[in-house]
Amino acid sequence: MSTLPKVAWIGLGIMGSPMSENLVKAGYDVTGHTLERDKLDRLAAAGGTAAASVAEAVRDADVIVTMVPASPQVEAVAYGPDGILENARRGALLIDMSSITPQTSVDLAAAAKDKGIRVLDAPVSGGEAGAIEAVLSIMVGGDQADFDEAKPLFEALGKTIVRCGPHGSGQTVKAANQLIVAVNIQACAEAVVFLEKSGVDLAAALDVLGGGLAGSTVLARKKDNFLNRDFQPGFRIDLHHKDMGIVTDAARTVGAVLPVGAVVAQLVAGLRAQGDGRLDHSALLRAVERLSGAQV
């Protein structure tokens, strides 16, 4: 009999499916719920258990993990008669690994406390590849004791695991992460178009840039996307658009000025408006190509 906590996993999308499967591989008893039948079948095939509802999934869980697209989805699975807070047992630990507004996380922690449920906000960075390889960066907000309790579970999912402060802090750091990633992808996309229009060997150029000060995790992870124009989603433009809204709104609240971030947020919004929302965020290259006169 395993001594590991029983886990309920809500949300089995691009990130949630491989992450939940990594917990199964680590020996956790994982019961999952999502809206897509094929994703439930995938979890069952990996050794987990499929649940027909949120309430069924969380009823006997020690730890509940949510990994859904945005604040409205977190609120939908957390609140209401069929939600987590009404059906989880007192003393359970709710870990929200979605990327949502910091205020949503603060409000959820307060509502859960009234039900005797502890909460951590623990968004991640690393994309689909990081989820599959269990090398995600996990930025956590909440109480130290809850973080310490959750640390072994986090270690089955990622490599860089840091408590950043009280409730909402993880989401604030994730917003900053998404700002940096978007600006970096935009810079890489502009460099690619500049290099190609200059007649340079693009693969050679990206190799040497990656070995110098211009090198970054973004360039290393997205180089093949740029070279092959492969924009199958690891992290969709739709989601990065949502995240740029989070960071610009949060920055306005605290009085931080993000001039470059504001421009890139508009470029992401423009790409989405042109019908590319379901593509990977490396598709920012398509926007730069259009601005440079290419037909894409």
Give a verbal description of the structure:
- The protein has helices at 16-25, 37-46, 54-58, 71-78, 84-87, 102-113, 127-133, 144-155, 169-197, 202-210, 217-228, 237-254, 259-276, 284-291, and strands spanning 7-10, 30-33, 49-50, 63-66, 93-96, 118-121, 124-125, 136-141, 158-165.
- The longest helix has 29 residues, at 169-197.
- Strands 3-2-1-4-5-6 form a six-stranded parallel beta sheet, with helices on both faces.
- Helix content is 55%, strand content 13%.
- Helix 2 links the parallel strand 2 (30-33) and strand 3.
- The termini are far apart.
Q: What is the gist of this entry?
A:
This protein is an alpha/beta fold and 296 residues long. The protein has 14 helices and nine strands.
